[in-house]
Amino acid sequence: MFHLQDDHALMGIYCFYGFSVITLLFAVIGGFGVWKEKKWALIVFAVGMILGCLFFIFLEISLPFAQKEMELSLKNNYLSMLPLSNVSESELSEFNHTQSEFRCCGITSHEDWENNIPESCQCDIDSSDDCIDTYGPMHNDSGLNVLDVKPIRIFAKPCIQALIQFEMRYFSTLLGIMLAKTLLWILSVGLCIAILCQLNKKVETPNVVYSREAKAGNYDILSDAQEPSLKTE
Length: 233
What we know:
single chain, mainly alpha, two-stranded antiparallel ribbon, disordered C terminus, membrane, Tetraspanin_EC2_sf, transmembrane helix, Tetraspanin/Peripherin
């Protein structure tokens, strides 16, 4: 179950790569439209960006409502691991590292270890964390039980809340990336629409064609109009 963290991280990376490839594809189409002044390419770019913005806005509105359900699902996944004394060696090593990092013990409490408390739960005497005293055998790094009649100081805080908060950080990061991409896409849509408007307003200059059959009769009017003024002078 501890591989959920890596699985969620990989899923987020794959989604990010997928959206990046789509963004790059539309960017190439839009750049081609600007370079060659092709309206169809700009229209395809604008439509694709608008659809992408609508999809991101839908996700950003719906995902926060699913946050509680995601937290409940994560909690149930971790609770299904109980008791911790039955986990595999690899999961035990990962969870010992988790307990040392988050300074906690057990999933819901230290009793999840069924009196086989590992050394990763032990807190120092001068520790500022909330610690409690308990009795029972402890596991050393080699996995052997170490009997001790003295009270053992262990972390009082369970790990489940810290694990859920750690998982939800990926969720918050994904929402932030989606919001940034949405704003960027909205800006690109506005620029594309502005370019399309400029292309529609472009004045077409008629081509001047030389013809040997051109007549000078039209210019006689101008010359006749200038003769009276010359005579008066």
